Amino acid sequence: MEANNRPLVPSGTHKLVQDKYTVPTNEIMKLYKKVVEWIEDRAPGGIIYGFQRRGKTDAIKYVRDKLKEQYNNELPIVFVPAKHKFTANEEVFYELLLLWSGHQFPYAGKKNHKFDRLAKFLHEKGEGSRFKQVVLFIDEAQALLEAHYKWLIDLYNYLYEHKIKLIVILVGQPQLKGNKDLYVADGALHIVGRFMTREHQLFGVKSVSDMSVCLKGYDTVEYPEGSGWSFTRYYYPEAYAAGERLEKCASTLFEAFATVRQENGLGGKMEIGMQDLTNTIKHALVNYGSESKEKKYWIDLDTWIKCVKRSGYIDSEVSFLVKKG
């Protein structure tokens, strides 16, 4: 039997269970193409924004890894994650950039020394690349203060003077777009012109086609890597062997989300956040797949509806609608 050939993965360690994976979606691929365009145009910067649970952080990590692959690790990329509180402290800001740039001594020295060390370190990275560019991603950038932009301008100018192009890509919630609009209204073109010349909004799943692309990822991404066992095959080996694929469930899963919305009186156009979708799919694989007590041969509409309800979709959707409206 197909199940007897499954790779041995200790309980609780599968990438799906630990959320240590990203499947390419329509939105992620649109974003990737957009960021590549900005890099090729040598644009000084851009903003990427979307509501919570739309998968911004995972999308940026995917884009970062794809950029490293496309440019053969010859394009220096710095990614500042969303686990730091941005305060109006110049020295702390330089420490943060030094840390995530990979500098060996991010905390040594005084403020001016840290700026010099950061600028020279990034110059060295850029100079060592045939592209003469450094790409800096900053997550949750809606929290940046005007002072942070001043310090980024100092860094930008230093590298520009040394013929290295710093591309700053800011990632955040819709407030980031609002901040840009305020800077434009206030005439702060020194900020907008350097770091916000381009923009891209990241959406969730809005169509069956979007859903299909996402589900296909589970049919193709393998764990262990190179084993031939995709996520779908691992959790539903018999059904997979018989030709079933999650990609074929796109219409049914989309219907499941629509049904749950209707049951809870939610109107308007449907846009499913990536966190809610991936939680739903994980529940369907882990809680009804071959390792579960409620094992099913395959996933029907009623099961999808149960998984949507368990994903936390309704709570997050209500929160989204409140923020949006």
If you had to describe this structure to a student in words, what would you say it looks like?
InterPro entries: AAA_22, P-loop_NTPase. One of its GO terms (molecular function) is ATP hydrolysis activity. There is one protein chain. The protein is of the alpha/beta class and about 325 residues long. The protein folds into 2 domains: about 25-200, 3-Layer(aba) Sandwich (Rossmann fold); about 205-325, no CATH class. Helix content is about 55%, strand content about 10%. It has helices spanning about 15-20, 25-40, 55-70, 90-100, 110-125, 145-160, 175-185, 190-195, 210-220, 230-235, 235-240, 250-265, 275-290, 300-310, 315-325; strands at about 45-50, 75-80, 135-140, 165-170, 200. It has a 5-stranded parallel β-sheet, with helices on both faces. α6 links the parallel β3 (about 135-140) and β4 (about 165-170). α4 packs parallel to α5, α9 (about 210-220) crosses α12 and α12 packs across α14. The longest helix is centred in the middle third of the chain and has 17 residues, at about 110-125. The mean pLDDT is about 95.
